[in-house]
């Protein structure tokens, strides 16, 4: 459920009519619903009520906006970060350092030191070499870094190839068959408190079967490590639950996921750690755009909008579906391709799709844009960086300003020897 609904024929975010936002902020613009974020955060936690001791860390990469992070911090969520910048954002939003998990396959020595400086709760190690580096840095400071070893279980998540992370050929983690030996070597290092294992097989999962297969393998690994004399207190099970991008889609609910977790992990006697991202933020946001003009095409009309692939990249890079709706629907539909103004053939949001009929200057939205939307935006074609708005009941605020090309250009410099 989300809080983007029609009221008196006009699409609203909670109690704010979307045209009111467009008139004040302009388009394209991302619009988030506080009520939706809070509801999804609660529902995910409630789904894990039978899973024992848990730790929830929101995947900052899915939506790093400070206001969004603040809402989730108030819901008791920590942060799963993959860069020093995300770590700083999580702290700035009020998330506790001890509730921050540092993931990511390419942590630099500077980022490892930053994590130690801030006193974060856990490093998820992606390789033996990373563990050695962290141990050396921590030992030199007279510290022990809390860590888990990320394992690649060689499980196909059944998702898009570009967001699959748990197959043998993916770059993440260490192969499960060599994990016990690597764990044994790293556990002897003075600078590490290697307290468990971590796994994450991909994003936007539509079925629980791959996750259950993965977690079953992790349970056997935990048993094997304990049999070898290691103390295992934490298992990070990652994230990856999908959300419905199409009206007919019905991915597993947090309740279904939690029931599977409770069954598979029974007897593990650990703190289970989770890193939800899309399932919390995805349907909490939309991207609003305005129609520039309708252009006749050979097979169908082109609806040219002021949003482009630089504002919402997922359709261009993943062939992802985002449901398009008119802000003031008439009940009529049309078959059209919805495209942006960028000089790339991949700047297309929908190809020959049945959509609400729109005309020049009408407003429309792309749904399920609260995750991996604004965070992936860029300024290609010297376009402005898209702004973000948060709605709370009957009020709204700009929580990320539109950054104009002139501001970006001011950070560039022509060397004297070219003048």
Automatic annotation (TrEMBL):
Pyridoxal 5'-phosphate binds at residues 240, 275-278, 372. The modification N6-(pyridoxal phosphate)lysine is found at residue 61. Residues 30-370 form the Orn/DAP/Arg decarboxylase 2 C-terminal domain. Substrate binds at residues 278, 314, 318, 344, 372. SUPFAM superfamilies: Alanine racemase C-terminal domain-like, PLP-binding barrel. InterPro entries: Ala_racemase/Decarboxylase_C, DAP_deCOOHase_LysA, De-COase2_C, De-COase2_N, De-COase2_pyr-phos_BS, Orn/DAP/Arg_de-COase, PLP-binding_barrel. Its cofactor is pyridoxal 5'-phosphate. Pathway: Amino-acid biosynthesis; L-lysine biosynthesis via DAP pathway; L-lysine from DL-2,6-diaminopimelate: step 1/1. PANTHER family: DIAMINOPIMELATE DECARBOXYLASE, GROUP IV DECARBOXYLASE. Belongs to the Orn/Lys/Arg decarboxylase class-II family. LysA subfamily. This is Diaminopimelate decarboxylase. It comes from Parasphingorhabdus cellanae.
């Amino acid at each position: 459920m989300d809080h983007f609904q029609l009221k008196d024929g006009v699409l609203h975010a909670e109690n704010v009519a979307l045209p009111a936002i467009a008139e004040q902020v302009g388009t394209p613009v991302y619009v988030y619903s506080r009520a939706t974020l809070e509801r999804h955060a609660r529902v995910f936690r409630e789904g894990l009520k039978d899973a024992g001791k848990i730790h929830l860390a929101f995947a900052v990469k899915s939506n790093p906006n400070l206001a969004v992070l603040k809402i989730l911090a108030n819901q008791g969520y920590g942060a799963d970060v993959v860069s020093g910048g995300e770590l700083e954002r999580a702290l700035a939003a009020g998330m506790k350092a001890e509730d921050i998990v540092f993931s990511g396959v390419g942590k630099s020595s500077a980022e490892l030191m930053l994590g130690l400086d801030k006193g974060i709760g856990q490093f998820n190690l992606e390789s033996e070499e990373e563990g050695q580096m962290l141990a050396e840095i921590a030992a030199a400071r007279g510290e022990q870094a809390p860590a888990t070893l990320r394992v690649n279980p060689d499980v196909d998540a059944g998702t898009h190839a570009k967001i699959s992370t748990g197959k043998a050929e993916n770059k993440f983690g260490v192969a499960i068959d060599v994990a016990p030996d690597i764990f044994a070597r790293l556990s002897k290092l003075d600078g590490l408190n290697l307290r468990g294992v971590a796994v994450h097989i991909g994003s936007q999962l539509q079925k629980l079967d791959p996750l259950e297969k993965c977690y079953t393998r992790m349970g056997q690994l935990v048993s094997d490590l304990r049999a070898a004399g290691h103390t295992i207190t934490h298992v990070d099970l990652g994230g990856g639950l999908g959300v419905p991008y199409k009206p007919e889609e019905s991915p597993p609910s947090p309740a279904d996921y939690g029931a599977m977790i409770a069954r598979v992990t029974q007897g593990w006697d650990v703190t289970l750690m989770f890193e939800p991202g899309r399932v919390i933020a995805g349907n909490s946001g939309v991207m609003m755009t305005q129609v520039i003009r309708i252009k006749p095409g050979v097979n169908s009309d082109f609806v040219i909008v002021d949003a482009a692939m630089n504002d919402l990249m997922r359709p261009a890079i993943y062939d992802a579906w985002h449901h398009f709706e008119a802000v003031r629907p008439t009940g009529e539909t049309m078959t059209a391709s919805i495209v942006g103004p960028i000089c790339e053939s991949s700047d297309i949001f929908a190809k020959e799709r049945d959509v609400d009929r729109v005309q020049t200057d009408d407003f429309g939205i792309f749904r399920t844009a609260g995750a991996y939307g604004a965070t992936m935006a860029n300024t290609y074609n010297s376009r402005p960086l898209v702004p973000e708005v948060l709605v709370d009941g009957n009020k709204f605020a700009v929580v990320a300003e539109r950054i104009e090309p002139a501001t970006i250009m001011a950070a560039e410099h022509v060397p004297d020897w070219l003048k």
